[in-house]
Design brief:
Length: 260
């Protein structure tokens, strides 16, 4: 089963991908996470394996390809392992395409139960490449409750469908903020996830509250599902992981990873 998350910039795609990946690994599945955001990678920092080649060993060459970095039980590959933070990645489309191909074909992923792909914002080159390399891919769309975010997420869902990648579900992030006194603020409005799910004819897999612990988890490199597993946000991520397992049962991952 292949999960690809997609949607508007800054809605929490990387946060969701990382936490769901770690939750799946924690549930005993073999999980691979490809950071396809080659220009704006954020996965390494979120998993505490950041800082590029200057910082340490990074991925090493094994007998059957480059060994991915393992963090919280998840096998990770990211452009962030090859460049330092102060080095911009400036590439034309074909190089990007080639890099993604190498990340899929030359990395020793083994036979993971799930490969999650963290997509860059927007619809574009990377989505096109991924649809060619992972024709059995599936898309999970992340949105906030806000109408504007929903519209962009919807476009990325339509793009996925055009590329023959089925959309399997919607994940609503930043759904509300709970105050210490039990009051609830719907900072980004209400209903975007449910509406999008209905329009796309797919389930709303979960709603994740806005919570300082989620942001801190991303900043410190210990995802909230590990640092505070009984928090509402962590439980929401775990529930989404369970939904993805349910959806994924029929389509166990096999040869799709091999590009050639
Ligand atoms: N539920 C949440 N509660 C609090 N902060 C959150 C939540 N989800 C995401 N964030 C924070 O919001 C910011 C944006 O999240 P993230 O980087 O995951 O978004 P993205 O959609 O991947 O962005 P991009 O489009 O740039 O790739 C991050 O600082 C993250 O820690
Ligand atoms: Mg991101």
């Amino acid at each position: 089963m292949l999960g690809v998350s997609s949607g508007k910039g800054g809605v929490g795609k990387s946060t969701v991908t990382v936490n769901v990946a770690v939750a799946l690994a924690g549930a005993g599945y073999s999980v691979a996470l490809l950071d396809a955001d080659v220009y704006g990678f954020s996965v390494p920092a979120m998993l505490g394996v950041s800082a590029g080649p200057a910082a340490g060993p990074g991925p090493v060459m094994g007998e059957t390809g480059v060994a991915p970095v393992v963090a919280f039980g998840v096998k990770v590959m990211s452009m962030g392992f090859f460049v330092n933070d102060d080095q911009p990645v400036i590439w034309r489309g074909p190089m990007l395409h080639k890099a993604l191909e190498q990340f899929l074909a030359d990395v020793d992923w083994g036979q993971p139960d799930f490969l999650l792909v963290d997509m860059p914002p927007g619809t574009g080159d990377v989505a096109l490449s991924m649809s060619q390399y992972l024709p059995a891919g599936e898309v999970y769309v992340v949105t906030t409750p806000q109408a504007a975010a929903k519209r962009v997420a919807q476009r990325s869902a339509y793009m996925a469908r055009k590329l023959n990648l089925p959309v399997r579900g919607v994940i609503e992030n930043m759904s509300w903020l709970d105050g210490p006194d039990g009051s609830r603020f719907e900072v980004f409005g209400h209903g975007g996830g449910a509406q999008l799910a209905e329009e796309l004819g797919v389930p709303l897999l979960g709603q994740i509250p806005l919570a300082p612990g989620v942001r801190e988890g991303g900043d410190t490199g210990t995802p909230v599902v590990v640092s505070d597993p009984s928090s509402d946000a962590a439980e929401a991520f775990q529930a989404i992981a369970r939904e993805i397992v349910k959806l994924g049962k029929a389509r166990i991952f096999r040869e799709e990873l091999k590009v050639k």
